[in-house]
Predict the structure of YtxH domain-containing protein.
Amino acid sequence: MSNNSGNVLLAILTGAIIGAGAGILYAPDKGEKTRKKIKKNANKTKEDLTKRISQAADELTKTAEEKKVDFEQKLEDTISNMSYKADDIIMTLEKKLEDLRKKNAQLQK
């Protein structure tokens, strides 16, 4: 979850809590009934927040796992590519060495 998504989620939850609280406080109910409503809404908001945090954590875990798999694949591809290039370099060097040995043998005759 990006930082902007987190900020938006926090703003929405804050607005919902403030709106619910203001609505309850201005409702024409007795104190005991109002306190029960506040407690009920607080518990509902807590459950909703817990659920959203759990979903965000699951999404973050999923994204991290996908990035890990992607990184591992790219690393494997890079190592494989480097191995082929190393083989090419070794073959070229071996060919040059063989050519030098032939020239050296001719010069020593």
Summary: Residues 17 and 62 are 29 Å apart (CA to CA). The helical segments are 3-25, 31-108. DSSP finds two helices and no strands in the chain.
